[in-house]
Amino acid sequence: MIKNFGLNVIEKNPYITSSITPPTYPHSHDFFEISFCVKSESTNTINNKRIKFSKGTCVILRPGDVHYLSDYTPLSYEHIDIYSTKEDFKNLCDLCNKSLYDMIINETSPISFLLPNNVFSFLYNYSLILKEMFANKNPLLTVIHSNMITTILSEYIKNKEYSEKYIPIWLNGLLPKFNQIDFISKNISLI
């Protein structure tokens, strides 16, 4: 059974949360959720595709993406979720590139990429600042929140441009198949 969590999920803090015991059942949202793994690892299943989620891995979950985490050790695992309404996310995409929002919405595969160490450190430190700003009702928290999301969007664009420029189309089609058990269980000559 898939559960749909609306904006009430982010009523406690509509900007950011940390999780060491995430939901292990399929669910979706009607808002954007950007997650990055802080420590340890898990399996992030998004729209029935399994992704290794380890330190520095970032995923952009779109409204309606069905996802859940598994294969993690509570208390040694942690990830951070950054939330955004559809309207705010579109506005931030438009600041980066007018076609970016449509590109993200129309991706056929789950959106996952590795953050460079300096970007990971920046986002982690800003997440701590953002939580404190929210607790203190600091009016600048929307600026920090927007800055974090545009930084992630910039990394998504860099990652996409690199993969399209340097990875041949046939290889892009082949790589996702290595996450499918029925594909990798074939003998090497069939692959």
Would you write up a description of this structure?
The protein has 191 residues and is α+β, with helices and mostly antiparallel strands. It has 6 helices and 10 strands. It has helices at residues 86-96, 100-105, 117-135, 141-166, 169-174, 181-184, and strands at residues 3-5, 16-19, 27-29, 32-39, 41-46, 49-54, 57-61, 67-70, 78-84, 111-114. β5 (41-46) and β6 (49-54) form a beta hairpin. α1 (86-96) crosses α4 and α3 runs antiparallel to α4. The longest helix has 26 residues, at 141-166. The radius of gyration is 17 Å and the shape is globular. The chain starts with a strand and ends in a 7-residue tail after the last helix. Mean pLDDT is 81; it is low at 6-12.
Q: Report the mean per-residue pLDDT as an integer.
A: 81
Spatial ordering of strands, largest sheet: 2-9-4-7-10
Helix content: 25-40%
Between the first and last Cα atoms, what is the distance in angstroms? 34 Å
Number of helix segments?
6
Order of helices and strands: EEEEEEEEEHHEHHHH
Mind summarizing the main beta sheet? 5 strands, antiparallel
Number of strands: 10
Report the β-strand fraction as a percent range. Answer: 25-35%
Low-confidence stretches: 6-12
| Rg for CA atoms | 17 Å
Which class of secondary structure composition applies to the elements?
Answer: alpha+beta
Shape call: globular
Which key phrases capture this entry?
alpha+beta; three-stranded antiparallel sheet; 191 residues; globular; 10 strands; single chain; 6 helices
